[in-house]
TrEMBL record:
This is Cation-transporting ATPase pma1. SMART domains: Cation_ATPase_N. The lineage of its organism: Bacteria, Pseudomonadati, Pseudomonadota, Gammaproteobacteria, Chromatiales. Keywords: ATP-binding, Magnesium, Membrane, Nucleotide-binding, Phosphoprotein, Translocase, Transmembrane, Transmembrane helix. Residues 5-79 form the Cation-transporting P-type ATPase N-terminal domain.
Length: 893
């Protein structure tokens, strides 16, 4: 059976062909057979570049070219040893880059795999949530607004379904779909009874039968291969890479100039060559791009461990600069474990006892037959106008819910009243529905009772439902509705922090199978209100406090009632919790008024996704960097607009995930706060790596330029510089990529988004440290020469001093402004200690191993001279501590 014909067949024919029941789905045995025949529902992924090509890519870099030219020059000047060492360094650098890049990419693709597409499937008579890759032809799938269509499917039942097929046809306007048969040959874009893999459900619901999976789908056919490779870069890293390129070019020009000048000053050619190569090698920060990429990859992996999945890497940087977090309430700030505690009838407020989703508990306070009958219908409405399912877990406490937790709570309410879901659904089968939509805030379903009566059940936000009610349901016939009274009841229940829903019914004396909004214009009777509790997440309370301390303002944007939202906001400890702006009021504000209002309003209630977009824009115009959460398909524009769009991994739709930069696996606000902290941490570490590496290069090149200017002996030889830069600098800087957060991380305000990475402060530090390093190198070198020690010996001391200064500077730079002279600071981290131990070992080898002595012209140092090198380094460290202390005092003054 080919896909092109499915649209020409009736639903019955197709179900027969796949031997599947519309209400039961495939059996497990059928799935196994189909799986063997068709394979997994996956599109072939482009294989990664072969290892040899990735290895060669490491050499495609300006510095390597420069080094290769240097090696060629060495060959030309018959300096074979120099040539061999340069080539060895190039090779080692390539291998390190290859391994690191491989690991970073592996980490990222492992994170990507956490975000698989899910599908709701009917199998063996029950609804299951499965990974979309497990679908087989013949499966019956339930589609809802926000879902990404997981395979090519023929629609069987459709409720108001609209699908955006841009992924396939390029057309971004959503099309409405139906389930009728089409005759003749119909073009792909016009097959309104089919939905195709990769397209997006923007509205409504549907039941559909899978007819093609994996590469048999239309997407699989037109699609070339899916490229999954994510570039390991961010704007900041690109800036730095460009900076490194400019620097290299500048260094090359200066080196050329030095060469020309030196040539006319009659330096020997080989000496000049050595000097120029030294300068080039000294001034270029070879390790910088690698270190920055690694710091970024470590940040992303750390965030993933805390349930925050970064979908677009630049978000790591932006997260650290976030100044406002706009969060949904339900499920993110609250537990989304709902329970009905209040039922309000016309003349009685009933209390509902019980715990969570457990069936034990009572509805207390009904004392007459009329109320009992109203309660009966209210519970029936709660049960039937409902898409959730409760399944019994191993114990009474471990009940599983499927679907919306609020609807599950309504099922529990009905159960406490003695109504069983299965029986009621059989007694009152559903024929049609108007699905819930955040814009109209209600849901309605149409049922019949096998005796020629039909019922429309409605539940939703009180103002939406009350506006449709003409009277109040009573056993003795409808009575007039006292709107003022009911509004008061809503406000009272909401002020206690409860979510309020109104339930209503319309009874019809004739059979009806289709429902539309016009049916709700007359004859609707209110059944009552229910109040549900949804406690705040305890961890959100402390996370909000942390954010507020870190200068990040938190705003609650909810579809819920203003009074409920305000009550929950104050339980959460949100600053300005009492200032609430409702969607209705928001509509009346001009853009200018809104820009002012957003600054001091913390709670936005009864909002729609369109309001979210206006709020993000208003905040951004005020210069804020905004993180915004969202879960529905209509939240996508606001998520895209926000600086960091955050989608929900559990409750959210695929559409929201596609539009966002980050996904919360646990839907928890506390995770956002920890991601902000992690973002700040990554940025700090990038800054530290730069502040660490650049002065080392600065110090080395300054030493060489000075030597040339004043016709002094070079204190460090080119190969030795290469050794320092490629071995100790990179090893030590790598430790900085693992630095944990500084203690004041969440106690300082967010950084300005346009703040330069190399700020004036960092620049000053770079200049100061460069000068200190140069002074240290010359001091030790000249002292050794003055002691009548050989030039080689003096150079070995200079190299060891330089590396010792690097090690001590590493301890200093770990706290950019705070003191490093504390037990915590000296103790370092595991990464720091390992790096220092390795570098120490390598320096011993450099100084004492005959083979390396030959390569680098080093000499074995006496113990006391070794100590002297370390002492000079400690001196530099102390000077830097003094500088930090002075600048702290100066800032405080
Ligand atoms: P948040 O935006 O913080 O997640 P929310 O879940 O209350 O809050 P919406 O989903 O937009 O936001 O819901 C808005 C209102 O619509 C709710 O307060 C409730 O009154 C009503 N509502 C929500 N879900 C349903 C549903 N399944 N059926 C009927 N009414 C609903």
């Amino acid at each position: 059976m080919s896909v092109t014909e499915a649209y020409q067949q009736t639903a019955n024919e197709l179900c027969q062909q796949y031997q599947v029941g519309v209400t039961s789905g495939l059996t497990d045995a059928q799935v196994v057979a189909a799986r063997q025949r068709y394979g997994a529902n996956l599109l072939p992924v482009k294989p990664p570049a072969p290892a040899w090509r990735r290895f060669l890519r490491q050499f495609n870099n300006l510095l390597i070219y420069v080094l290769l030219v240097a090696a060629a020059l060495a060959l030309f000047l018959s300096e074979y040893l120099d040539m061999a060492v340069i080539l060895a360094v190039v090779l080692v650098n390539g291998i390190i880059g290859f391994v690191q890049e491989g690991q970073a990419e592996k980490a990222l693709s492992a994170i990507g795999a956490l975000l698989c597409n899910r599908a709701r499937v009917l199998r063996d008579g029950e609804t299951r949530q499965l990974d979309a890759s497990e679908l087989v032809p013949g499966d019956i799938v339930i589609l809802e607004a926000g879902d990404k269509v997981p395979a090519d499917m023929r629609l069987l039942q459709v409720y108001n379904l609209q699908v955006q097929e841009a992924a396939l046809t390029g057309e971004s306007v959503a099309l409405s779909k139906h389930s009728d048969v089409l005759t003749g040959v119909v073009a792909l874009a016009d097959r309104r009874n089919m939905v195709y893999s990769g397209t997006l459900v923007t509205q409504g619901r549907a039941l559909a039968l899978v007819v093609a999976t994996g590469s048999d789908t239309e997407l699989g056919r037109i699609n070339q291969l899916l490229t999954k490779v994510q570039l390991l870069t961010t704007p900041l890293l690109q800036q730095m890479a460009q900076f490194a390129r400019y620097l290299t070019l500048a260094v090359l020009s200066v080196a050329g100039l030095v060469f020309v000048l030196g040539y006319f000053r009659d330096y020997a050619l080989s000496y000049l060559f050595m000097a120029v190569v030294s300068l080039v090698v000294a001034a270029i920060p070879e390790g910088l791009p690698t270190i920055l990429t690694i710091a970024l990859a470590i940040g992303v992996t750390r965030m993933a461990r805390r349930n925050a999945i970064i979908r677009r890497l630049p978000a790591v940087e932006t997260l650290g600069a976030v100044s406002v977090i706009c969060s949904d309430k339900t499920g993110t700030l609250t537990l989304n474990e709902m329970m009905v505690t209040t039922v309000q009838l016309a003349a009685a407020r009933l209390k509902v006892s019980g715990k969570g989703y457990q069936a034990s508990g009572h509805i207390d306070g009904v004392d007459n037959a009329a109320d009992r009958q109203t309660l009966d219908w209210l519970c029936r409405c709660a049960l039937l106008c409902n898409d959730a399912r409760l399944t019994q877990g191993a114990t009474a406490e471990a009940r599983q819910i499927q679907g919306d937790p609020m609807e599950a709570a309504l099922l529990v309410l009905a159960q406490k009243h003695g109504l069983a879901q299965r029986e009621q659904m059989q007694a009152y089968p559903r024929h049609d529905e108007i699905p819930f939509d955040a814009a109209h805030k209600y849901m309605a379903t149409l049922h019949s009772d096998h005796q020629g009566h039909a019922y429309v059940f409605i539940k939703g936000a009180p103002e939406a439902v009350l506006a449709k009610c003409q009277g109040y349901y009573s056993a003795n016939g409808a009575v007039a509705l006292d709107s003022h009274y009911w509004q008061q009841q809503v406000n009272q229940i909401a002020a206690a922090g409860q979510r309020v829903l109104a339930l209503a019914v319309k009874c019809l004396s004739h059979q009806q199978t289709l429902l539309n909004e016009r049916d709700l214009q007359q004859g609707v009777l209110l059944l009552g209100l229910v109040g549900l509790i949804d406690p705040p997440r305890p961890e959100a309370i402390s996370a909000i406090a942390d954010c507020q301390q870190a200068g990040v303002r938190v705003k609650m944007i909810t579809g819920d009632h203003a009074a409920t939202a305000a009550a929950i906001a104050s339980q959460l400890g949100l600053a300005d919790a009492a200032t609430v702006l409702s969607g209705y009021e928001l509509d009346k504000l001009t853009d200018t008024e809104l820009r002012q209002a957003v600054q001091h309003t913390a709670v936005f209630a009864r909002t729609t996704p369109e309001h979210k977009l206006r709020l993000v824009s208003a905040l951004q115009q005020q210069g804020e960097v905004v993180a915004m959460t969202g879960d529905g398909v209509n939240d996508a524009p606001a998520l895209k607009r926000a600086d960091v769009g955050i989608a929900m991994g559990q409750g959210g739709t695929e559409a929201a995930r596609d539009a966002s930069e980050m996904v919360l696996l646990d839907d928890n606000f506390a995770t956002i706060a920890s991601a902000v902290a992690a973002g700040r941490n990554v940025y700090d570490n990038l800054k530290k790596a730069i502040a660490f590496l650049l002065p080392v290069n600065g110090g080395e090149s300054l030493a060489i330029v000075l030597a040339l200017l004043f016709a002094l002996t070079l204190p460090i030889m080119p190969l030795q510089i290469l050794w320092v830069n490629m071995v100790s600098s990179i090893g030590l800087a790598l430790a900085l990529a693992f630095e944990p957060a500084e203690s004041n991380l969440m106690r300082r305000p967010p950084r300005r988004v346009n703040e330069a990475l190399v700020s004036r402060f960092v620049l000053w530090r770079i200049v100061l440290v460069s000068m200190l390093f140069t002074a240290g190198i010359f001091a030790v070198f000249n002292w050794a020469i003055a002691q009548q020690l050989s030039v080689e010996y003096a150079r070995t001391m200079a190299v060891n001093t330089l590396v010792a200064m690097e090690v001590w500077y590493l301890f200093s730079v770990r706290y950019m402004q705070g003191p490093s002279l504390s037990w915590q600071g000296v103790k370092g981290t595991q990464a720091v200690l390992i790096a220092v131990a390795i570098v120490f070992g390598l320096q011993l080898a450099f100084t004492y191993l005959p083979l390396l002595q030959q390569l680098f012209h080093s000499q074995p140092l006496s113990f006391s001279h070794g100590l002297l090198c370390v002492a000079v380094a400690i001196g530099v460290f102390l000077i830097l501590e003094l500088e930090k202390w002075l600048s702290r005092r100066w800032r405080q003054a």
